What does this fold into?
Amino acid sequence: MTSGPSSPPTIEAERRQLTVMFCDLVGSTPLSTRFDPEDLREIVGAYHRCVADTVGRFGGFVAKYMGDGVLVYFGYPEAHEDDAERAARAGLAVIDAVCRLTTQEPLNVRIGIATGLVVVGDLIGAGAAQERGVVGETPNLASRLQALARPGTLVVADSTRRQIGTLFEIEDLGPQPLAGFSEAQRAWRVLGESGVVSRFEALRSGTTPLVGRDEELDLLLRRWHQAKLGEGRVALVSGEPGIGKSRLTEALSQRIESEPHTRLRYFCSPHHQDSALYPFITQLEHAAGFARDDTVEQKLGKLGELLAGGAHGDDEVELLAELLSLPNTAAGLNLSPQRKREMLFEGILHQLEALTQSRPVLMVFEDAHWIDPTSRELLDLTLDRVRRLPVLLIVTFRPEFQQAWGGQPHVTTLALNRLGERDVTALVRGLAGNAPLGSEIVAEIVERTDGVPLFVEELTRAVLERAEQDDRVASVLSASLLPAMAVPSTLHASLIARLDRLGPIAKEVGQIGAVLGREFGYDLIEQGRDGPPRSCN
Ligand SMILES: Nc1ncnc2c1ncn2[C@@H]1O[C@H](COP(=O)(O)OP(=O)(O)OP(=O)(O)O)[C@@H](O)[C@H]1O
Ligand SMILES: [Mg+2]
It folds into this structure.
């Protein structure tokens, strides 16, 4: 596990959660009868390259080519909190890309995806042929689901479906008997993206009662009342993943529900960080009420209606139409790129100003750590502009996001801390409902989750589900159940992602710590390692 400066890094077998994709060419046997080996090799080569390029864009790792099949891992060598989502997006993109390949014969694929704990083994082969063996039933499940999929479709396991929430439109294929599995496995066909842009709504629950956060909510309410009087306010809500930034914002929305106001929501996305003005574009599309099957004319009509009151002149309407990729005459304006950008920004800000003339505005800008550079410029301007408007602008972000807005008089910063023991207990009880969770296990959940509400939700749910599966109420009452399931699958990815980001030494310490317990001294870590000491700075 150790590596000196000159020796190549060696990585040992490791238990981690992977999302595994298996992709196969449809009807390749007939292909081989119709083409000579040379042509066939060219066709299959183009197909392999297409799959590798496409999954690469989503962070997928091609582990193995198996004839016409391609085995791809998401979550290795680096884990991301959204590996399952990346895999699903990649799967849809592969189907699309392979269909559009200009080979001598049109090609089509079917794809299966499954998520689970696996042991990633040693490196096999060398150089480009390197592959990593994976042990566990997940690759097998992905491959069986692939065989089940109709040509040109993507089928995912229940384990994957749980992690993609409602981000995708899916069709339930029901429980499927699969070779090698004693129980029928539920399978889902992924049809496409669902268009839900709020990751909180798509992936998180928000259905349990809010616990704690009284002071934070009071502060936001005070800022809202100040903002309503025309002295705009900005609240910067920061905190680690799952701490409750979105939930707090949602709670404020609910509290002021009955007051006349307009709520504008902007969502940054980890998948659109290179897409200029993505949060502003999706907000406009949503506000205009675009439907997926609207014609261009219908969209233009809706956009015209939306902008009617606020635009300062037709030029702004043209620029906004261009922003939304609709037919426009913006090119005829003969503007320099710089001037055009200024006018576009002004156009968007004029819309906000116009809205504030009828009602105060609650503007929620979520997940700024994923913001694209152009949006960031516009957000800077917005922050400044709201000072003179009846607007409360709430910006949420994780701690890694760098900003220098905090010093301004109309800006409040709010760093969310972890929940206290009493609040966590209340949260566990709220989630458990009528299930008979013993106080011992509640205490264990409180202890293990460190006051991060997302962890509390996931671990409590995992405990309840396990109990239901086993149909052993007694097991719920005893804490002995917990150690085996200390990290629920929905959290694995985000925890490993954190460790991967910290680098190999932190991960090693984490792995040793997982064996030793929650608290351990440096000497124990040293004993746990199997190599010479390294500095941990
Ligand atoms: N105070 C709370 N009371 C009850 N549930 C909470 C509370 N805070 C958060 N939660 C729940 O915990 C989960 C995570 O919260 P949330 O999604 O708001 O975190 P976040 O800080 O926005 O995370 P991310 O950085 O990933 O967006 C959600 O399901 C939410 O409903
Ligand atoms: Mg959030």
